[in-house]
Amino acid sequence: xxxxxxxxxxxxxxxxxxxxxxxxxxxxxxxxxxxxxxxxxxxxxxxxxxxxxxxxxxxxxxxxxxxxxxxxxxxxxxxxxxxxxxxxxxxxxxxxxxxxxxxxxxxxxxxxxxxxxxxxxxxxxxxxxxxxxxxxxxxxxxxxxxxxxxxxxxxxxxxxxxxxxxxxxxxxxxxxxxxxxxxxxxxxxxxxxxxxxxxxxxxxxxxxxxxxxxxxxxxxxxxxxxxxxxxxxxxxxxxxxxxxxxxxxxxxxxxxxxxxxxxxxxxxxxxxxxxxxxxxxxxxxxxxxxxxxxxxxxxxxxxxxxxxxxxxxxxxxxxxxxxxxxxxxxxxxxxxxxxxxxxxxxxxxx
Length: 350
Hints:
- This protein is α/β, with parallel strands linked by helices.
- The protein has 14 helices and ten strands.
- The strands form two sheets. The chain has an eight-stranded parallel barrel with strand order 3-4-5-6-7-8-9-10, surrounded by nine helices.
């Protein structure tokens, strides 16, 4: 942007007021921090933040957060009956750790935090609903209103149906591990609050299948997928927010400038913050006219669509498996820490 300063002596100075790409992006899209790292969130001050089992696991391994882990474990133990089993402790501690990190994040940001339901429940509607209600109740015990929480659920048919039930109860949901159009439309028809279509993982699949090392920003398969979803939602008047996620490079992010939200890892936030130049708003809901067919995707159509889409089927399965493994590793880490705490208490004082 060119600015002019005119002094009393009529000397005219012209200077360039250059904003970073991140500043420009933030003016047209809600930038969300995709991390459980509290220091990174403090640095970039996003409105919202998202977490997932892998991010919570990475944060839990950080020695700086050991006190937070210990607090969650103590809370888990206190909430259980006498003589509780290892399995009961682990299940409770996973929920408590997720909420404790969410609580700390909400103390930094002004908006919402996404907390994920156990990925191993992705094909169980009833269990997903029960777990979501439990997480909301944990937050409520800290005086945190459910309006500030997005419950993250995998975009399986069972997950979407669980979100539909929860939304009717006023519990807002973020449908994650979303890779194709049918998943997105089913979520919108279920009136979920937000979807997180994964850009980078779609790119990963196409690079592996085609042997191409790279795709230009506008030709990136993940970018194309999210752009189609965004246009359809805006043309049809869906209230469901679109939040691009899982980026592999900043060109993907720039190509989706104007999307409702973008959740971005700290390394890319940092890169965008240092980069200057003009950012063009690529997605603009005011520019689209209605020329899409109406899609419904009932259960049969949804499942057939997923079967026909090898990429979406493979990446959904891979994502659920990956998050499940991260939860299992986190469980082991928490139980090990709990054992260490108990052993320290049993050691005689010197």
